[in-house]
């Protein structure tokens, strides 16, 4: 999974019926601590979730996340999958991702900004200026 690609994943709804959903995963070295995922809800509408890159990295190894975003790696009949769950006050959704694709995306983020080098790419002064500019 490369940055800014569109993927079709398997979506599980509340009745355990499967339906396709498009998602866009992106990572920017300008925001090295976060990953953005967008889900298409209609032809012109996307819902955006932003979460810590460390959460995805941890979730590829073991269940991770205690808040609104969770990952659980597992195997099903030889398929390496990653359960991706999001939850808000408006509902919850779960997707099964191909874990190899998720690992490829994670590797791409690490190639762009290695763990521990995030502060070299993050402009804290610009963030503070944006927050205090009222």
What does this protein look like?
One of its GO terms (biological process) is division septum assembly. Belongs to the SsgA family. It is found in: Cell septum. The protein is an alpha+beta fold and about 130 residues long. The chain has one domain (about 5-130): Sporulation-specific cell division protein SsgB (Transcriptional Co-activator pc4, Chain A, Roll). It has four helices and seven strands; from the N terminus they run ββββαβββααα. A seven-stranded antiparallel β-sheet has the order 4-3-2-1-7-6-5. Strand 1 and strand 2 form a beta hairpin. It is globular, with a radius of gyration of 16 Å.
List the helices and strands and how they pair.
Blueprint: E1 5-12, E2 18-26, E3 34-42, E4 45-52, H1 53-59, E5 69-76, E6 79-88, E7 91-98, H2 99-112, H3 118-121, H4 124-132
Antiparallel strand pairs: 1-2, 1-7, 2-3, 3-4, 5-6, 6-7
Keywords: Cell cycle, Cell division, Septation, Sporulation
Organism: Haloechinothrix halophila YIM 93223
Family: Belongs to the SsgA family.
Features:
134 residues; alpha+beta; Transcriptional Co-activator pc4, Chain A; seven-stranded antiparallel beta sheet; 4 helices; 45% strand; globular; disordered N terminus
Please provide a brief summary of the model.
Keywords: Cell cycle, Cell division, Septation, Sporulation. With 134 residues, the chain is an alpha+beta fold.
């Amino acid at each position: 999974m490369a940055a800014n690609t569109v993927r079709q994943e398997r979506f599980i709804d509340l009745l355990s019926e499967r339906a396709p959903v498009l998602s866009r995963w992106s990572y920017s070295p300008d925001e090295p601590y976060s990953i953005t995922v967008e889900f298409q809800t209609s032809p012109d509408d996307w819902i955006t979730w932003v979460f810590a890159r460390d959460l995805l990295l941890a979730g590829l190894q073991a269940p991770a996340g205690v808040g609104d975003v969770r990952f659980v790696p597992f195997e099903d009949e030889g398929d390496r999958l990653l359960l991706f769950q999001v939850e808000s006050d408006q509902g919850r959704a779960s997707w099964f991702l191909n874990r190899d694709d998720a690992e490829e995306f994670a590797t791409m983020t690490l190639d762009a900004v290695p763990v521990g080098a995030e502060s070299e790419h993050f402009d804290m002064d610009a963030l503070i200026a944006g927050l205090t500019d009222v």
